[in-house]
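Suppose you are handed only these lines of text.
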Amino acid sequence: MIYSIAIETMPHAKLRKLQSERFVQLVQYMYRNQPFYKKQWDEHGIDINKIKSIYDIVKFPFTCKDDLRNNYPFGLFAVPQQAISRIHCSSGSTGKPTVVGYTKNDLDIFSEVVARSLCCAGATPGMKLHNAYGYGLFTGGLGLHYGAELLGMSVIPVSGGMTERQIMLLQDFKPEMISCTPSYALVLADTIRKKDPELKSINLKYAVLGAEPWTEAIRKEVEEKLQVIATNIYGLSEINGPGISQEDFEEKNGSHIWEDHFFPEVIDAITKEPLPEGKEGILVFTTLTKRGMPLMRYTTNDICSIFYDKSSKRTHIKMSSIKGRHDDMLIIRGVNLFHTQVEALLEHYPEFSSNYQLIVEKENKLDKVTVAIELNETIYRELGTAIETIQHSNAYLQNLKGKLYESIKNNIGLTMEIVLKDFDSLPKSEGGKLRRIVDKRK
Ligand code: DLL
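From them, the structure of the protein bound to DLL can be written out as follows.
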């Protein structure tokens, strides 16, 4: 089902015209109401009256996370604080969070794009949604919640954590759709299967997964273990929250960015020049319709490409899955490395569980990467002893480690130490975002 046919299938020329109209109004609005932008644009000699179309966007400087931090907490609000209906924060793990304010109308748009996204993921009115994204300052819980209600779903606002209780509710309420992080979907799947290996007690059909980078291997595993169709939902609080883009459950090759509200660009990480369709770089967004705290050319730091897909049911541009965040990119002995590259190789090894960590440290002044990876449950039980202690003497395990070592070396161009771990021994998702990298160099 398409939530809004007129918008989601709008011809490109008409979409571009709509974006241009919205952009021209936005620029005037921001200049009048956000002193930060007025000052910045004056310093850059931008004459806002000469801004005539969306193509003029290249004249504007970028906004970055530090601009939000420097204006903490409410300095970028474009309306008096009393006109802000809700405040969310980014999930930054250190220092002050970045704050986002929404007017009532911004929240209506937020719900609308999430309703669109849920339809795109396979939802229809009347379906039940088990929403296991965290409720609170994080945008995931409330964002999905109100969008699902707008669509006419019955929302079960479970939030994150308390896995046993979640499973009881999945079994008793029998929701058709679940929304959570991909890593938590796997935790739920493994826990359910321990009690019910054939999955007879639940009725899930769709999973809407996002908030952290994930790969095709994880998709396959979630789909097999939970017997669902899993699609990607993307977003960030600075721009809105979840529902900036969403994958179609029948197409699954990239997520549609709702271009009538969020104008995307991809720029080169070094030169900051906009890149053509299909080229990978840093994703940048301009909020075309937000009024509480609009942002111009916000650099997300997320690495992906954007492209039009003529074979799609919808006309809006797609983005590839996020490879990682630019600030999460590891530089190992001069080679750029995202953890998702290692994850993609692990897909070929059913002997492992999907739980792994990359540990980076200095050894004799050189970067050293260790891949700590759990064995899958069956092999672990067969071996029946602490894996870490026997991995150097057991021929089967040595051979397995050797194959992974070679595969990483040949595909990524780096040598990494492989350390096998007991099943279920590495940190798991408890509903929030899971960090795969432990960088001890910092
Ligand atoms: O994670 C919003 C969200 C909630 C998205 C629920 C999807 C589902 P923040 O906490 O501000 O907002 O974190 C935003 O998370 O810049 C990406 O680095 C990462 N991220 C979000 N969705 C995806 C995804 C929410 N589908 C940051 N794939 C973003 C990869 C994602 N990374």
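What can we learn from it? Residues 90-91, 133, 138-140, 210-213, 232-237, 241-242, 300, 302, 322, 325 surround DLL (CB under 6 Å). Residues 329-439 form a domain with the GMP Synthetase; Chain A, domain 3 fold (CATH 3.30.300.30).
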